[in-house]
Known about the structure:
- The model is unreliable at 1-13 and 15-22 (pLDDT under 50).
- A hairpin with a 4-residue loop joins strand 8 and strand 9 (126-130).
- By secondary structure, the protein is an all-beta fold.
- It starts with 24 loop residues before the first strand and ends in an 18-residue tail after the last strand.
- It has a three-stranded antiparallel beta sheet with strand order 1-2-3, with no helix packed on it.
- Helices cover 0% and strands 38% of the residues.
Amino acid sequence: MDPTVSLQAAGLQDGHHLTAIVLEAKLAATEDAFALFCSGGDRVVTWGDPDSGGDSFGVQEQLKGVKQVQATERAFAAILADGSVVTWGNPDYGGDSSGVQDQLKGVQQLQAAAEAFAAILADGSVVTWGNPDRGGDSSEVQNQLKGVQQLQATAEAFAAILADGSVVTWGNPDYGDRGGDSSEVQDQLKGVQQLQATAEAFAAILADGSVVTWGNPDYGGESSGVQDQLKGVQQLQATVHAFAAILADGSVVTWGNPDYADRGGDSSEVQDQLKGVQQVQATGHAFAAILADGSVVTWGNPDYGGDSSGVQGQLKGVQQLQAAAEAFAAILADGSVVTWGLPYSGGDSSGVQDQLKGVQQVQSTYWAFAAILADGSVVTWGDPARGGDSSAVTAQFAYV
Length: 400
């Protein structure tokens, strides 16, 4: 990715004009594998578990003009410049789109559940594939999926916001309480602006800043206990079992399974610290919030990053947060990175700390992190078999 060229060798002299197009490298991740690509580029480099999308050799020649890459737990899907889609990885998780390939034209956006993909086409319709019992079959609501603006997904269901602000849901037909059945709140779902999801429940922000939830009550689908606090909601974030809402005044409201307070749904111990919150990020069972002064407040399961006391003195000037399943990574203003959580799952970056300089972006699988540096190189850490070891493809990074 070295941008240096010999201008004289290219026949350029003083006074000639040169237009440089810089393609920004991006990362996408499944449960156990990474994909590195440039928007508009003609190559994708993958590593990690081959059965989770870590091997893209079979489709590499098709990956021309890649615009966006999305991922289920074990498969990738790429939107190309012509609006078509290329998939790879585990077929049962959406890695095989052959059954709908002729429909995948003019694709604008992709969203993923755990085992299925959904694509929004240029005409606002939706095409789905993958596990039919986990959102891959939208036939029962297909005639309602018109003018779709945005998609969100739990592990087993999808929700689509239409142009009129209403919502259409589908998913596991045997377990409607996992988010695929919104019938009980359908009359409340008007003017929906944004959707967020835990593993088995959805939360929708309405135009007036209030929130409507549905799905499994133990996964945040029941918000009656905090409903009077959910006013002026600006953003939502979610762990597996709980939601966190940032309000207009920078405070935070959380809810989720009351029997598992350590999974993020109970922020009472840090509530007085949650002021001026700018961003919230989540691991499987913990939240981390960036405050206006660049410091960080964490809560939830200590083993999943809910306890940042060991690195609190380093968490200053935090610009961005990224989360794996059991660990957090924070990018500081100087481009360095601070990590915490389970060491083997990416919470310990000491082995690569001297390389983590000028970090621009961090992405994660469930158990590993990858960072793109200012010079275009990539640094990885965490579980070696699940994306934490990129040594086998390091030489390919220069060609992305």
